[in-house]
Specification:
The complex is a heterodimer of chains A (283) and B (267).
Chain A (H helix, E strand, L loop, with lengths): L1 H18 L5 H6 L2 H22 L10 H14 L6 H32 L1 H14 L8 H8 L3 H25 L3 H9 L4 H38 L5 H10 L3 H29 L7
Helix pairs in contact in A: 4-12, 5-6, 5-8, 5-10, 5-11, 6-8, 7-8, 8-10, 9-10, 10-11, 10-12, 11-12
Chain B lengths: L3 E10 L8 E11 L4 E5 L6 H9 L6 E6 L2 E2 L7 E4 L11 H11 L4 H14 L15 H13 L5 E5 L7 H18 L2 E6 L2 H7 L2 E6 L4 E7 L14 H30 L1
Parallel strand pairs in B: 3-8, 3-9, 6-7, 7-8
Antiparallel strand pairs in B: 1-2, 1-4, 4-5, 9-10
Classes of the chains: A mainly alpha (283), B alpha/beta (267).
Chain lengths: 283, 267
């Protein structure tokens, strides 16, 4: 009787809490925030248009929006430096994705082993821990010395940076697996292997994901840096080459495309995270 | 189903290091017979949880042993499932996945494991929530899932480590009655640790009062009321009398541990 009543109320509250949408004033105010964001961006564009059109700013310093749009259409149709625009984007994407994926595929298992075994950690931590705070672009001269200025050097640089971030995050994730979950697994009769794969790995996943997120952002930053130095294609090549010839509009277009691609990366990862790790940080 | 025998178990921590060793348990002996609920009460730091960990196989006793049906316990196993106080459900699994996880990993065929899981989810009244994730459940519901996840393995004994301590009063009462109801249907042996004297006397066939530093069995108190019990029992004079006895014993322990702490500070 008492049991039934209390438990029934408990269940009803939980069941209800999931469906009833909050209709508070705070919620309706929250609905306005996207509008505010759009407004802020529009305002910035208006200021840009007004200033460049009214004060006759040199296009080499800052082109007007309409002029920039003209350059963009021309680039879309005619490409840049003999190659279509999409080929430049693909060149950068290809380099960063190759380096990134290789880095992640190698880093996750090694990181997990570091988190699992103190001996492995003792062996590898000093190396990776020392490299981590060094900005990856600091290795560009060395990589060029050792491997030349070809594709391999660029991808190697991206690989190394993604690897380092992901390996440390995976190790930290493994170490942070709650003792209670491990005990529950042992208690249920799991073998060491099952425990590793079915309990510790999923429990470490949120931190691994954080590492992958950072690596993705870093890999995109590095591909542009690497292309600044020596490349015949790529978004970094466009902004470097256009800058050399004072072609400010092309530089700006390159910068904007880099930003849009970077944002898309972030969006895709955040969506994947929400699907895969919906259970995380909700108690 | 065999008897669980804890035989002269002592546990000393830190004996290998330079620091002073801690005697957590001192020659503790107790039995849990078929269909019995045994509660252990004592002030915090008296080694209750250490005792549970030794029975579970998470800790090895320094001396003494734990036997089930005459067989020595070595290591943890699904015949002794722990229900933890803090959330230990796998947060990335639904209720159904959590409950069927142990049997499936031990090789029980999927269909059978799911049928069993459904049965115990029903037993704890969560059928409607079988496909929800732990974060979508209240604290009391999560503890019910833990109960189902334990019972589905048909353990020799349920080891419960203050499982209801972090729940609110109403929910705690409901959980205690649910546990007795489950006991009535399935008759598991239960080893239950608590610092709540009323909870102990309400649930137990036998209450062990443990003394503090080192953890020793101070007294054993039989609780003769027939099961199933309902919460109305807590106002019956005989119940109150037993509760008072246990409380007095525990209060003595508190005073003793205070004196020890003071002496420790002085020296």
């Amino acid at each position: 009787m008492t049991t039934e009543v209390t438990i029934a109320r408990d269940d009803a509250a939980v069941a209800a809490g999931r469906r009833v949408a909050p209709a508070s004033p705070a919620a309706s105010r929250r609905a306005h925030y996207p509008l505010i964001s759009v407004g802020a961006v529009l305002l910035l564009l208006c200021i840009w248009a007004l200033v460049t059109n009214l004060f006759h700013i040199s296009p080499m310093v800052m082109p007007t929006p309409q002029a920039l749009y003209g350059h963009f259409v021309a680039m879309l149709l005619g490409g840049y430096a003999g190659q279509p625009l999409w080929a430049h984007i693909l060149a950068s994407l290809g380099r960063s994705m190759t380096g990134l994926l290789c880095g992640i595929v190698l880093a996750v298992p090694i990181g997990l082993c570091m988190g699992y075994s103190r001996a492995v950690n003792a062996a590898l931590m000093p190396i990776f821990g020392f490299i981590r705070p060094i900005p990856p672009i600091a290795f560009i001269p060395l990589v060029i010395l050792w491997f030349g200025i070809g594709e391999f050097s660029k991808i190697l640089l991206i690989f190394a940076a993604s690897f380092n971030f992901t390996v440390l995050a995976s190790a930290a994730g493994m170490r942070a697996v709650p003792e209670q979950l491990v005990r529950a697994g042992i208690n249920l009769g799991l073998t060491r292997r099952q425990l590793f794969i079915s309990v510790m790995l999923p429990a470490a996943l949120p931190q691994i994901f954080t590492g992958i997120k950072t690596s993705t952002a870093v890999s995109w930053a590095i591909v542009v840096a690497a292309e600044l130095i020596a490349a015949q294609a790529g978004l970094g090549f466009i902004i470097e080459d256009a800058g050399t010839f004072f072609r400010t509009p092309e530089v700006l277009i390159g910068v904007v495309i880099i930003g849009i691609v970077g944002l898309s990366f972030e969006l895709v990862i955040t969506l994947a995270e929400r699907r895969l790790l919906h259970w995380q940080a909700k108690g | 189903m065999g008897t669980i025998v804890v035989d002269g178990v002592s546990k000393i921590f830190g004996e290998s290091r330079a620091g002073p060793e801690i005697r957590a348990l001192d020659r503790v002996s107790l039995d849990i017979d078929d269909r019995e609920i045994v509660c252990v009460v004592g002030p915090s730091g008296c080694g209750k949880t250490t005792l549970l960990n030794v029975i579970a196989g998470f800790e090895t006793p320094t001396t003494g042993e734990v036997r089930i049906d005459g067989n020595l316990v070595a290591g943890a196993g699904p015949d002794r499932i722990v229900v933890f106080q803090s959330p230990s459900l796998f947060p990335w699994m639904t209720v159904r996945e959590n409950v069927s996880f142990g049997p499936r990993k031990r090789g029980v065929p999927k269909r059978r494991a799911l049928t069993d899981a459904a049965h115990y989810i029903e037993a704890v009244g969560l059928t409607r929530f079988a496909d929800r994730y732990p974060y979508e459940l209240s604290g009391g519901m999560r503890q019910r899932v833990q109960l189902a996840r334990a019972l589905v393995n048909q353990p020799e004994v349920l080891l419960m480590d203050e499982p209801f301590a972090s729940l609110d009063f109403q929910t705690r009462l409901a959980m205690q009655e649910l546990l007795l109801q489950l006991w009535h249907e399935i008759h598991p042996k239960i080893f239950f640790i608590t610092h709540d004297v009323e909870e102990a006397v309400f649930l137990a066939d036998r209450v062990y009062v443990i003394s503090v530093a080192p953890g020793r069995i101070k007294q054993v108190i039989e609780v003769p009321f027939a099961k199933p019990r309902t919460i109305d029992l807590v106002t019956v004079p005989d119940f109150v009398a037993i509760k008072d006895r246990v409380l007095r014993l525990i209060r003595e322990e508190f005073r003793a541990s205070d004196r020890q702490a003071l002496a420790g500070d002085g020296g």
